[in-house]
Write a structure and sequence with these properties.
By secondary structure, this protein is α/β, with parallel strands linked by helices. It has 11 helices and 6 strands. The longest helix is centred in the middle third of the chain and has 19 residues.
Amino acid sequence: MSEPVKPPKSLIRQVGKAIGDFAMIRRGDRVLLGLSGGKDSLSLLHLLLHFRRHAPIRFEVAAVTIDPQSGAFDPSPLIPYMASLGVEYHYVREPIMELAQTHMDNDSYCAFCARMKRGLMYRTAREHGFNVLALAQHLDDLAESFLMSAFHGGRLQTMKAHYRIDSGDLRVIRPLVYVRERQTADFSRDAALPVIHENCPACFDMPTQRQHMKELLAGEERLNPRLFRNLLTTLKPLMSVGIDHVDDPPPVAAVERA
């Protein structure tokens, strides 16, 4: 059985701070990670396993992968990798591309696929008794969502760091909200994580709004190296909306020291 990889201290510190600031993980939580096999979700997998070993409270970590059976994306190599780590793993196959042909209304394929995947992750969490779903969006994702919302929706809005879904039975957390994309890229490369690159024609045949925002931010950051530090200050109140505070605090100090 393989040992999980210890993440770099910078990632541990930033993710530990996010867990503390947004009260993400609590005593007795059963956390299910949405694992696509990309650099971000694989990085978060090893971070959560690290925290599980070192935090002074007990919580569980498992993972779920949704295989959309698209032909262009095959996450099945994750099955033996997760077995080697000894992590509880749920691999869900669903013909999402085929379903899109008959069930998609006015949505783009990407929007339909994302909604289907989220619903399947919720279902898996409920069926197996998990109360928290962990997703791997990072600060770059939040900044891009903020600009898309402001430019195209006329709203000051971004992804939330921690919230309870409408049905009330699951919480969603994003422990990477303080982390830059280049950090997960560096970690996954240095640790030789088995990254699976998505290659969906529906997503990559044409430039997307998100890709345009990514390029816009990259250009601005070249002119202003403090850009994302300033954006984090701007975004923090927006990502805090919907947090369900409780009396039982997360292992903030211990996680940051681990």
